[in-house]
Amino acid sequence: MAVALFPGSFDPFHLGHLGVVEWAAQSYDEVVVGILGNPEKPSGMFAPADRARLVELSVGHLPNVRCVVSGGLTGELARQVGAAVIVRSAHKDQDLERQLAVLNKFISEGVPTVFAPADPPPPDISSSVVRELIASADLDAAAALVAPGAGKELARLPRLPAGTRSKGSAASNPMTVGRRVAPVRIAAIQDAPVLLDRDATLDKALALVEQAAGLGAQLVAFPEAFISGYPDWVGRTPPDGDHAAALLAALFDSAVVVGSATTQILGLAARRHHVYLSIGINEREPDGPALFATQLLFGPDGALLSAHRNLVPGGGERMVWRAGDGSRMEVVETPFGRLGTLAHREALMPLARAWLYAHHVDLVLVPAWDLSGGSWPATLEHLAWEGSVFVVGVGQYLRPADVPPSVPGRSALYGGRRPGPAGGGTTIVAPDGDPRARAPRQGCAITVADVDVNEGRHRRHRNGDRLRADVFELTLTRAPSPSSDPVAPSGT
């Protein structure tokens, strides 16, 4: 029997929802209308049980439709009811719908999303419009937007207090300074994204996290801008070159909004495999065109612990990425010590390093595009030795053959005898400056090392306090920097 799940908040259920259910009832053996919301901490206008009452009154003429209330996620509910498909109505924001479909398929372990035919009711019908009419006491107008059997109930059902919201709780991490902490197995991922393809790169990242967890990793570190690729074309074509505008537009379209389905999936992957997960993204502001090189860190419970924006995009990167500010500088407490991030060229900033040392960092992640050439190997070793910290430098490994045919200007920019975009250089360095593990000089690899940050703490104790806070003063400006003119493709 083919079961279709139609999920939503349905606060309240209206004629647009009913049209989707009627279509699904003709297409599938059973349709489950899933009302998502915590019955113990309801929010919105109507309690979940009352929303279910309105649904039941609306679909009474459809014998193969039932309603359930769930406090979980759509994907979890799909598994519980044995759904073959998740049904959604067409939405004007197709990118949002695509991300939600990927998220729900990941959570449900394979249940696809299908969209009802684009035959909607008038565009002014939505739950928010119905709620506004009810709030303004225009019950006749509100009743006209819901099923005939449910209209009379709108006036009788109790309403939740205005502004009701569910409140979460934030658990504090254990303070780890001054005591021994547990060792940790680190997996540094040297690999290639699917350039300018967010969803394909996300799928690849999820598979790599699973592989790393299978190796026993508790901290999984990816390079910068892994989703969906580093804009290395800034060194291959001038800003007004033949392909520059198309490449920037493609990067913008494949960028990630923090809090979107992409970041939710990454958090769920961290929770599923019980790992700390550091991964670089091209971050796009939710309501603007600015792009940032951002390194996300998720905890083993799936929570986003930090979203560090690179402070110093260099050279041509400034044509693409805006600089971050001090509001995103963090040192994160973990059971294996205090974790900090210096994204690529931030490792060359003496004051940024000093700030981390002043906050007793034990392990520094250096996500980068390429750490294989120049003085980068020596820089990672110096950073570890200077701070008596473990350093995880992780770079991408990308060859011209890895660049998809869909990338604008692929043949002109990456063909012929041009050198490869990125050569990796992934290295895990101990506090004495000696490499603990290195990735192969050629090829993709998961580099694993067992690390005990107590080694670095003992070195710092022996060497004494070299910061001399009684002589020098270092101040971090936490306030967000004023926005400069954003860089964005024309027409967005």
What key phrases describe this protein's structure?
30% helix; elongated; six-stranded mixed sheet; alpha/beta; 20% strand; disordered C terminus; 492 residues
Characterization of this structure:
This protein has helices at 15-27, 48-58, 74-81, 94-108, 127-135, 139-143, 148-156, 198-214, 244-253, 261-273, 350-358, 376-387, 410-414, 454-463, and strands at 3-8, 30-36, 65-70, 85-88, 113-115, 184-190, 219-221, 276-284, 291-298, 304-309, 331-334, 337-341, 363-367, 390-394, 397-398, 422-423, 427-429, 435-438, 445-451. With 492 residues, it is of the alpha/beta class. The chain has a six-stranded mixed beta sheet with strand order 10-9-8-7-6-19. It has a six-stranded mixed beta sheet with strand order 11-12-13-14-17-18, with helices on one face. The longest helix is centred in the middle third of the chain and has 17 residues, at 198-214. It is elongated. Residues 163-174 and 484-492 have low confidence and may be disordered.
Task: Tell me briefly what this model is.
This protein is an alpha/beta fold.
- State which percent range the strand residues make up: 15-25%
Largest sheet: 6 strands, mixed
Rg of Cα set: 26 Å
Biggest sheet strand order reads 10-9-8-7-6-19
Mean pLDDT equals: 87
**Tally of contiguous helical segments:** 14
**Record field, number of beta strands:** 19
Shape label: elongated
Unreliably modeled segments: 163-174, 484-492
**Share of helix, binned:** 25-40%
In whole angstroms, the N-to-C terminal distance is: 45 Å
Structural class by SSE content: alpha/beta
